[in-house]
Amino acid sequence: MPTLTTSPAPGGLSPAAPVTPEREGRRRGSRRERLVQALFLAPAALFLLLFFGYPVVKNVAMSLQEYTTRTFFTGEAPWVGRANYATAVGSSLFAPAMLNTALFTLGSIAGQFVIGLALASFFKRRFPLSGFLRSMLLLPWLLPLIVSSATWRSILDQDSGILNAFLRNLGVIQEPVPWLTSPSVALLAVVLVNVWVGIPFNVTLLYGGLQEIPEELYEAGAVDGATGWKAFWHITWPNLRPVVSVVLVLGVVYTLKVLDIILGLTNGGPANATQTLAVRSYQESFVNFQFGVGAAFSNILILISLVFAVVYLRMNRRAVDE
Predict the structure, then answer these.
(1) Phi, psi of 82 (to 5 degrees)
(2) Alpha helices in the chain (DSSP H)
């Protein structure tokens, strides 16, 4: 069988390897394989571009335009550059919204993680009905957030809520607490409800992480006297740290954009005590109909979330490499 050869390389260099039919066949097979891979990836890429890429690009464009209700009739949205961002940052509610967003996120993450880790450690032990009780923990996750908000709004009602009745029967409080109508406690009430909603997510991931820690490590630690807190600090925590990082970063990204719970409980009030960046974006867009300013608020929120998303991706890549 004849053999195809390439011309000698100029400059006295050694000639390239001859192109045999077998080599040409492997090249065609490789190209065909890459084409098949691209065809499999194409639907996912198209989906991401349509439903994730386009909304983000459109939102960025709206934040640079004077986009109001008039735009729907005239089709005109003049470019205003950074004016919407200047309006958003210069708003008297921007600083309180940033502070409330930080307090809401930190309080929610701390509560969800501490309670989630305690419950995950508790359910790691084997006892009757542990599987049933673990499945009951998922109920807050299964309920629509607007339903959870309506339920908790009834529980936290100052006059007829069962929480005030329960605390008064225990002697913890003497007068009913206006959980949702007092600016001094409204943010705390919203954080508590969000903690309740986020506990199943933390328990599920942390429980899975705890299951991956070999029992042999605890047995060897017990021989060396590492039990109780010593076992947790020297065995559980180091082995659980990659899962903890993922739980915290994903929790922050999720909590930053929470809107349903706040709207259902307080609608951003009372006296703007529960205003966050997500609430400001919603109210500017769908209450004041200043869509450009609302888009600017949401883009600021996206940038903050993007920082934590990058941290998550770097942590995830490091865990895969290890």
Answers:
(1) -90, 10
(2) 21-48, 54-63, 69-74, 83-90, 94-124, 130-136, 139-142, 145-155, 162-170, 186-211, 215-223, 229-231, 237-256, 260-265, 277-286, 291-321
Q: What angle do CA 47, 254, 91 make, to 5 degrees?
A: 100
96 and 275 Cβ atoms separated by less than 8 Å: yes
pLDDT in tens, 47-74: 999 998 999 999 999 999 998 888 888 8
Whether the Cβ atoms of residue 187 and residue 224 lie closer than 8 Å to each other? no
- To the question of pTM greater than 0.90 for the whole model, the response is no
CB 241 within 8 A of CB 315: no
Count, residues in the chain? 322
Per residue in 230-274, pLDDT (tens digit) is: 888 888 888 888 888 889 888 998 899 899 899 999 988 899 999
Classify burial at 47, counting beta carbons within 10 Å of its beta carbon; exposed 0-12, middle 13-18, buried 19 or more.
exposed
Assess whether the previous peptide bond of 270 is cis (omega < 30° from 0). Answer: yes
Q: Do residues 190 and 265 make contact, with C-beta atoms less than 8 angstroms apart? A: yes
| Coil/strand/helix, residue 322 | coil
